[in-house]
Amino acid sequence: MTNAIEVKGLRKEFKAYSSRSGLKGAFRDLFTRNYKVLKAVNDISFTVKQGEMVGYIGENGAGKSTTIKMLTGILTPTSGEIQVNGMNPHKEREQFTRTIGVVFGQRSQLWWDIAVQESFRLLKKVYKVSDEDYNNHMEHVIRTLDIGPLLDKPVRKLSLGQRMRCELAAALIHNPPLLFLDEPTIGLDVLVKLKIRQFLKEINEKYNTTILLTTHDLADIEALCERVVMLDEGNIIYDGSLQKLRSNWGDMKQVIFEFTKEPLQEQLQLITQGLPVTWVRGDRLNSWVANLENKGDSMSQLIAKVAAKYEIADLSIHEISTEEVIRNIYEEGVVNG
């Protein structure tokens, strides 16, 4: 299987300027400026196979969008090598852009004041798509995303969910083998998210479309991606299967206790000392959540120790969420392993 994306030793640095205070400082800034070099992406390497759906995740400022912009040819790397669809994105730009589709959740590629279908026609001309290819492919896209009734409306009159479905369709007019999605479901309601997720699964199965997805909504990752690449301060700290991530770091349970009378956190920590557990306040009145490493008989010990000391009104046990797993990894500063 060929690689759609090959990245080796990729780095992007930016100069951040700082101003001196006062009139004298401003005058000095006219001649010499203070700056420091920030590494947004720091010597990362990874590959994505043709047909893979990969989640590219990290906190704000981790370097996700900077990476996407280099992979799509918008930014030039400071150093390192990039091959996307067998091309250098920023050196073979015109030919390269015909092989990718891009959706930025906070930027539009549709013209604001004209009907959606007119934007589609313009993009069809830009990508030199034949009438036959356009009709065969876009009929399926329009039907699946349920945007037929929206085609004659100006983009400015669409809701956010309607616009994002149209943005996704626009990125697929030339049926690219590789699709970059940067926060494509930001701000969308549950039903629209489900429709977009289902559609992405369909095009991946039908056309073997490679998808690189960045998002803060980990439900998108769980629904679509078997593999995740996790970034922190410009470095890759995990690259592997989502299942392995959960099994390595997610072998935890959440035990939610509702007490008849709320205890203090210090008291809970004291009576469960020695157990692999952390306590956080729950959403309900008199409730506490125990995040517990599920080792040996730690669960029965936890419940026994708490029940011996406090009167429990209710108790429930849950699998820890992927979001909680990833938060734990960032807090512990775990390096790829």
From TrEMBL:
Keywords: ATP-binding, Nucleotide-binding, Transport
Keyword Lipid biosynthesis assigned: no
Pfam families recorded: ABC_tran (PF00005)
InterPro entries per UniProt: AAA+_ATPase, ABC_transporter-like_ATP-bd, ABC_transporter_ATP-binding, P-loop_NTPase
Sample GO molecular function, one term: ATP binding
PROSITE patterns linked to this entry: ABC_TRANSPORTER_2
Statement: the UniProt record of this protein carries the keyword Ribosomal protein: no
Residue span, ABC transporter domain: 25-258
Family annotation (Gene3D superfamilies): P-loop containing nucleotide triphosphate hydrolases
Protein name: Daunorubicin ABC transporter ATP-binding protein
Organism of derivation: Priestia veravalensis
